[in-house]
Amino acid sequence: LLSRYQIHTGLQHSIIRPTQPNCLPLDNATLPQKLKEVGYSTHMVGKWHLGFYRKECMPTKRGFDTFFGSLLGSGDYYTHYKCDSPGMCGYDLYENDRAAWDYDNGIYSTQMYTQRVQQILASHNPRKPIFLYIAYQAVHSPLQAPGRYFEHYRSIININRRRYAAMLACLDEAINNVTLALETYGFYNNSIIIYSSDNGGQPTAGGSNWPLRGSKGTYWEGGIRAVGFVHSPLLKNKGTVCKELVHITDWYPTLITLAEGQIDEDVQLDGYDIWETISEGLRSPRVDILHNIDPIYTKAKNGSWAAGYGIWNTAIQSAIRVQHWKLLTGNPGYSDWVPPQSFSNLGPNRWHNERITLSTGKTIWLFNITADPYERVDLSNRYPGIVKKLLRRLSQFNKTAVPVRYPPKDPRSNPRLNGGVWGPWYKEEHKKKKPSKNKAGKKPKKRKTKKKKQPKKKKITQKKLQSSLFNHYF
């Protein structure tokens, strides 16, 4: 939503926990805010997971006209309750800025969110532009799906994989129903549909990244390589596969430019306009991707400045891609190749028959991702010059990083203190003192305070728009 790398938001370590006083930085305009400037109606349905400790962090304060969904990263698909830890449980379904108790009726979230999308489209004038961001909860754990979706997957022995397949079948049906709604209500011919996953699968919870290495939460390709597609009658080249470098930060400038919006010159973005890359097959303007630098993740024991040629401390967890080359340092996370579990009911300890023992003390890896997307051949010893080049690029990025924001748990976040609901809890504490009388019985004199002048807002020129619909799924 901001077109910024994690190192530029302070969110480079882990996710935002529901008990943390933390959220997406408030000092930059979000994608929906920029689209609203040029006349778009903006709506969000689904999972927020960008922090909510203050009211200013809520979706309706970050550019969305309406919001229907959950604030946390996961929860029960039917009851919409979530326990973060024992004694920290609450309801997590919102209508704009209030708990949606009226929808506490056991409807599976994938179907419930689709119904809301259909309602939004049915009530919107197709001649007026709309941005619709749908963040389905599926296929995140817990693994739950309506019974009828299991019928086609009885042959899958592994129960987690079977549940996962059923959830995905329900999601497929939901996407079809959204597409039919676009056609029914007159949006389809002038719409752009973007569908993307947000990270790799979790093999211990039904997911599979085979034959890629690693899993969700790691810097291996199995953890960070997301698949997706763009579908639109407006595409010049249809039915093609794009293997150019594309990053999630690229959607911000791409969609704003398509909407004929204005990107502020004084705002530094990490994304690029990639529409010509997608629509016409041109080369991507992007030559590198900073996957992340996490300075507080568990340090690799054998990492050092010496191992990084005096350029970089290889104890630090980081990963960067420059053209064909990918460099990892520190502890990149779980590194096995996990075969599909479709026809196996063996426990997770028996899945890892593709385990390759890493050399002891290793804290730096180099791969040619174009030639070796499975990260099986480490080339760091063969090409020290390329390693140094990528380490220098890492160091350059690190100089622009802001401090990590990962505050401790705030006990005031407990839903018990908020009517049993997860929601904003943080309030600025300004205690108003009653005017005290002095010895003579007179009120003290009021101090004069100078009012600060508010900075003038720049006028943004609005251009005439074609009616377009952007559906952005995660």
Automatic annotation (TrEMBL):
Keywords assigned by UniProt, alphabetized: Calcium, Glycoprotein, Hydrolase, Metal-binding
Start-end of Basic residues biased regions: 430-462
Region annotation Disordered: where it falls in the sequence: 402-474
Residue ranges constituting the Sulfatase N-terminal domain according to the UniProt record: 3-259
Highest taxon above the source species: Eukaryota
Cofactor: Ca(2+)
PROSITE patterns hit by this protein: SULFATASE_2
Polar residues: bias regions: 465-474
CDD domains linked: 4-S
GO molecular function, one term: sulfuric ester hydrolase activity
InterPro entries: Alkaline_phosphatase_core_sf, ARSB, Sulfatase_CS, Sulfatase_N
Protein name: Arylsulfatase family member J
Organism: Loxodonta africana (African elephant)
